[in-house]
Automatic annotation (TrEMBL):
GO terms for biological process: regulation of DNA-templated transcription. Residues 2-116 form the Response regulatory domain. This is Transcriptional regulator. SMART domains: REC, Trans_reg_C. Keywords: DNA-binding, Phosphoprotein, Transcription, Transcription regulation, Two-component regulatory system. GO terms for molecular function: phosphorelay response regulator activity; transcription cis-regulatory region binding. It comes from the Bacteria. Residues 124-222 form the OmpR/PhoB-type domain. GO terms for cellular component: cytosol; protein-DNA complex. It holds the Pfam family Response_reg. It comes from Alteromonas marina. The modification 4-aspartylphosphate is found at D51. InterPro entries: CheY-like_superfamily, OmpR/PhoB-type_DNA-bd, Sig_transdc_resp-reg_receiver, WalR-like, WH-like_DNA-bd_sf. The keyword Transcription regulation applies.
Amino acid sequence: MRILVAEDDSRLLTQLDAFLQQNGYSVDLADNGEHALFLIREYSYDLAIVDIGMPKLDGFEVIRKARQADISCPILILTARDRWQEKVEGLDAGADDYLTKPFHNEELLARTKALIRRASGQANPTIQFGPISLDTVSEELSLNGQALDLTAYEYKVMEYLMLNPQKVISKTELTEHIYDQDFDLDSNVIEVFVGRLRKKLDPTGELKPIETLRGRGYRINRSL
């Protein structure tokens, strides 16, 4: 999953970047509102974390302009402690949730996962397709109740597919959402990951959990 973090406190920005990457997210950073608005208009994000008090353009304006541009990714605002007015204004501007400073990283992570799930229409932290189950809290993929041994990127590919069951996901989109910006988009590594997932989920070739739509991309088999 790809996240935009917009925060003008360089120390906090660095900490959030490291923490989110450690938890498997691809992260883009902005230290002012103008840069944040450019990024959110230019790229597709699964979540944006936006500080209210940024230079050049405050967080409220970033959110308003993003929503006016029909950008629908969930937005989590960061706001100063005890400023309930900021929370209300941020939600009215189009934010989906808020977190007051200082906060625990574990709460940020839990809210991040919940917002991404809900944006995909998945309120339950466990996503089920037939015998395949994905637990977004423990980040574990199971087949018939047995946990599978996946690499971090194999899990990311399967999580993105299962969180977007109505969509055909191109290799480019998968690459953009599981890697940082400078990754080679022409690489065939996504094909390799999908091939490994098929072998682990469907060793006999009967289940066919991941469909390939030629020239378009991949989709989870919704008839499992």
